[in-house]
């Protein structure tokens, strides 16, 4: 797969657009759409799915099952995009935040926040 055909930011933007179209305000139908059903159930149900998918990601990793890690992270990202949409946010905003952090070491950033050395995020 070449770089130009690799799934990337466009994929996230397209999925986010479909998710947006499933909102009740856009005519999403819980009878025919998983996303519309989740929006219909509300934020707690969306957050519960994120918790489940995060746990399943950890379990797949602990099992050493690399392909399952891919499936579970895809589930986690998908449900996280639904949560972003609930708050009127888009994946682009998360990607922009990651881009902003590029080149800034996590330890450097931690020090800039004035954290004491004994609080280092190493566990
Ligand atoms: N990417 C996804 C996607 N990923 C996961 N899922 C669904 O999310 C649910 C995840 O639930 P679970 O992980 O609990 O899976 P499970 O099979 O129920 O249980 P486990 O065996 O994993 O424990 C399943 O019903 C999946 O089918 C998704 N449903 C939809 N999409 C995208 O969203 C679009 C809109 O979907 P609809 O709103 O349903 O039209 C689709 O065209 C896709 O692009």
UniProtKB/TrEMBL annotation:
Listed pathway(s): Amino-acid biosynthesis; L-histidine biosynthesis; L-histidine from 5-phospho-alpha-D-ribose 1-diphosphate: step 2/9
Entry keyword set: Amino-acid biosynthesis, ATP-binding, Cytoplasm, Histidine biosynthesis, Hydrolase, Nucleotide-binding
Keyword Glycoprotein among record annotations: no
SUPFAM superfamilies membership: all-alpha NTP pyrophosphatases
Transmembrane spans: none
Compartmental location: Cytoplasm
Pfam families to which the protein is assigned, alphabetical: PRA-PH
Enzyme Commission number(s) from the entry: 3.6.1.31
Highest taxon of the lineage: Bacteria
HAMAP family reported in the protein's UniProt record: HisE
Family: Belongs to the PRA-PH family.
Listed name of the protein: Phosphoribosyl-ATP pyrophosphatase
Protein species of origin: Roseateles oligotrophus
Gene it is expressed from: hisE
């Amino acid at each position: 797969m070449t770089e130009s055909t690799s799934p990337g930011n466009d994929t996230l933007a397209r999925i986010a657009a479909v998710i947006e179209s499933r909102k009740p305000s856009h005519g999403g139908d819980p009878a025919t759409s998983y996303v519309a059903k989740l929006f219909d159930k509300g934020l707690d149900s969306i957050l519960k799915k994120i918790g489940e998918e995060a746990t399943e990601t950890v379990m797949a990793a602990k099992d050493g099952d690399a392909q399952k890690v891919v499936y579970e992270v895809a589930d986690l990202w998908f449900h996280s995009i639904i949560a972003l949409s609930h708050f009127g946010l888009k994946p682009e905003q998360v990607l922009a935040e990651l881009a902003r952090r590029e080149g800034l070491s996590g330890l450097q950033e931690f020090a800039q926040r004035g954290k004491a050395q004994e609080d280092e995020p190493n566990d």
